[in-house]
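Lecture notes, unit on protein representations.

Consider one protein chain, 315 amino acids long.
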Amino acid sequence: MADKASVDVQQMQVQENVHSQIKSFCTSMDEILLQNEKLVNDPFELSRQANVLPPTNNPVVPKRRSLSLAEVSKRLKDQIGYQLNVRPSQISHKDAGQGLFLDGAVNVGAVVAFYPGVVYSSAYHRYIPGYHDNKNPYLVTRHDGNVIDAQPWGSGGDEQELWNGKKMVVNKPDMEGVEKRLDSLNKPLEESQGDNSDNFLERRNPLALAHFANHPAKGMLPNVMICPYDFPLTESSMRVYIPNVLFGNAEVNTKAFGNLWLKSGASRNGESEVPILKTVVLVASRALQDEELFLNYRLSNSKQLPEWYNPVDEE
């Protein structure tokens, strides 16, 4: 297909494939976390949900089951066939630290992880903690210049924690110089469009761990690759599981999508201009089973490279 298709068509095919996989993931998460009518009538389940956040008088966010992140991860594996674990890396270098491991099996092309955190457009790069002094190891840059900082996300949340993007960096010690500007700058993308409703992000996302994937050591090869994913904000039912928010009042990006996978808003030519959130996911570059995930960091040659870094492809 790639030989016969234009670059634009190829990109659309990739986005449709990734979106389809993420939509399936979101459906599985709903089945795990959202209570249904039968569970409402189950006294035991009601007792487990007694302290679910946010308050039950909030009509925007449905009630969610009181499960820990570990419990959600285990149930997700039962549905999709794999889960992710963070534990000491198999790389022997002293700076390797924690690594990201796949428990289960996936095929080539499978979306295996989200890169969570704050999305900074090029206009706001100066506000990224550790960006200019290379002291933040949890940054990833898209081809279009958008940078995602996963440091505020950490390892996610536990139990019933739901995370509102407007509060995500307030307590970071290295953000003291930025906190004064949070009221005007650190607003979720949806709010910058004039949507005043609170959009909560589900912190119990077992796949929001891409920032723990290590660069392969010498003699090793990467087995996952970065794939930019433009999440269409019109997919409101999926939004809670996309672990990213936009920093600042940046202009909302729009993109044309075919109406084959967006149910509403199609124009006469079969495409729709919809607002998007520019994110990143990791995709398996070969079939994987029960192994550590390695990502080619592709560090710039213009900067001083760390001791542990071995280029996968010099060119």
